[in-house]
Each structure stands twice: as structure tokens, then as C-alpha cells.
Pectinesterase
Amino acid sequence: MVYSYFFFALVALNLVHSTLATQRNSPPTGSITVGPSGTYKTISAAVAAASKGASIFIYAGTYNEAVYITVDNLKIYGQTDDTSSYKSNTVIISSNGAMATKGNDDASGTLRVHANSFAMYNMKIVNTYGTGDGVGSQALALSAYGTEQGFYGCSFVGYQDTVLTDTGTQYFGHSYIEGAVDFIFGQTAKTYIKSSVIASVAAGTITASGSLSTGEGIYVIDSCTIKAADDAKSALTQEVYLGRPWTQYAQAVFKDCSLSDIINPAGWEKWSTSEPNTADVLFAEYGNTGAGSTISQRASFSTMLTSSSVAKYSISAILGSGYTAWVDSNYS
């Protein structure tokens, strides 16, 4: 009887999950389509054909190409059985560009978005250069330049410099970002990452803010899980830092996050011994939990926010009071 009870309870739970999960296995009306049964066989070809306000639907598959987007107000949808998360994504864009071969960080990106009012759903973006062995140079999965860019239920996988948000405003919701060295970085962008997983594959630093002046660019990481990637080569215990300052005006805030034991007790580190860049940084924390959240040994140049001071780093304070007009509330 007990066995039967738990069996039927499990079945009921699975039915509830299936009911709540929303599939996207067919293109929204009017969308440009990509894939074996689509109008275009490559994503780049679909992007080239798209005009402002268009939407692109991509059927399941791995697309080995680098994609460059310059058209504003574009939406891209990947086929999935569960739109609420990155875990069921079936569309992968993969390339292996690196700064060493392409000439600069941006040019190495698997996906380069130089456009405003952009939204992407349920896509996996991978830069394979250096992943697994750590050999090589900066190699971006995503290079983002533009205002009001949203990434929902997406995953970004690389090693060094996985995600660049360099200008404008970006929101990442219910997403996954993996790397090892400075793998969330940029200069003047205001970037908000919410309810996502940030995973380290090797020892290193998560953020590298390069703000050019006081109060310019910032990363706010809110209600995220910080952990070792499933394919990390070791447990990484105390081998990962929340960030280091690319410039002396670096800004990064982790609030209400779950920090695993991969986080070093110092939390934050200097850029280098010869160039610490700590004079004017804002490296702040609030309300974090987990084995890596203990603050007793935090770096002297870091800040612990209070219940009143943390309000300065709310989503409306970072992205602007009009953020609700472009951030998809289903991914908050």
C-alpha cells in the first residue's frame, strides 16, 4: 500500500510538471524557419533575410557556424519541450573562434549580437576553443553590444571569456553560463542575471568587470546558483573567485545567491600582484547562502550590503524603471 501511494504520487507529480512545462515544437506564426524542414538551412542565412521586427524559429539540431546579428528588434526561438528552462534545449550553435586567430575578443564569438531590442529563447551557444583542456586564449560564446537584450532559458558554454556584455543593457533569466577564467565580463554594460546557474569548469574567476569610470558598467547576479560544472575536472573546492577587477572601477554584486564550496573564502581577488586595480571597486554581496557564502575572510576591498543599501542594485535601478516593457516576466 505504501509503495502504491508513492508510485501514484510520483506519477501525479510528473503529470503536474508536464502540465506546467510549455513546449515549443512548431514556429510562431509568421516566423522565418531554420533546419532540415525550414526555409533556411543555416541560422546565418535566416538572419541575413530578417528585417526589423522579425522572428526566427530554429528546429532541433547542431548548427556549426558563427552567427552575427545587426538587425534590431529580432526574436530567436529554439525548439524545446520546456520553454521555462535551458535543460530541454535542442538547438546548439557551435564554433571554435579565438582571439588568437580572429584578432579580437568580439570576433571570436559564436554568437555576436550588435543590435538593440533583441530576445533569444532556449538556445545553447558553445565555443569549443579551449574547453576541456583550457589551452588557448579568449574565446567567446556570446558577444553582446546593444540595449534591451534578453536571453531566456539559454545556455552559454566556453572556457575563457564565455560571455561578453560590453555595452547597453542585458538580462539573463533561467539560463546557464559555464566557463573558467573571467567568463562573464565587459566594460560599460549594465547586466542583470536572475535565477540562473553559473558553473565553473576549472579554477579561476567568474566576473571581470572593466568599468571605465565610477558607476558605469555593472554586473548584478541575483538568486543564482554558483557551483562546479558537471564536467569540471576536479571538485574545485575554494578554487573559484566571484570576480576580479579588469579596471579599478569594476562593479559586481552577488545577492541572494547559493554559493557552493568552490568559492574561495576571500571571495574576490586582485587583477594581478603588479596591478591590483582595487582602489575604487564595488565588489558587493548580500543575503547569499551555502558553503561559499561565509564572509569572515572576505577580501578587504569587498563590501557587505545591508537591507537598505541593497536596494540600489534592484533590477529597476540597474536596467531602468521601464525594464518591464522588454524583460520577459516569465523568466524572473
In short: Residues 1-19 have pLDDT under 50 and may be disordered. The longest helix spans residues 2-20. Residues 23-331 form a domain with the Pectate Lyase C-like fold (CATH 2.160.20.10).
